[in-house]
Amino acid sequence: MMRVLLIGLLGLGGPAMAQTATEKAYLETSLGTWSTKAQSVDEAYDWVGSQKWQVFPDSADGVWIYQENAIYGSNPEVELTEDPAPYFQVVVHFRDLGDGLLHTTTYRVADRPAARGFSHGEVTAFDKAWLGEIACMGEMQRVGAGFWHGRATCPNGYKGGVKVESRSVLSPGHYVNWDRGFNAMGEHIWGPSEGGYIFKRVEGDQ
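Below the sequence we write its predicted structure tokens.
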């Protein structure tokens, strides 16, 4: 039953549909390399790098993006000597609902080492077998040319919490992500309290 469900979600069992203009617009703005290096001068925020690649480019249902985040350290003045392992690996499916609104489905990655191989060019295609369970669903709304606002609230047991509230803003040059965990009493227990991580597009990466 799970395999049948997954095939349906991947759009492999229905009629072919071309990507919509809204889906393509989001894809063009989102892909690339992003960094919080500038923000990490504030000790409340680590230096995080994020990379996003399109996967399943021939899918007949929406667009799919593989995202990998890694912490490079707490001091932006320190030159990197090694490539840190990612702490965050997901695949997000974006499906057009009309009026500039995209439905988002975030999948965990079941085979993280294999996906890491994809990001390093060791394999040329992302295997659908690497997709894990659905972690969250939300929405991404276009609010202007090249500008998007996203939101999701999903169950999450990290650090004793019961849910995570995720908010994001995407523009051609910046990406802001603010994830906060809450316990059963509605108390904020993890994630930055003053605002989200501000990722700047790495120069030359379009």
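The first strand starts at residue 32 and ends at 35.
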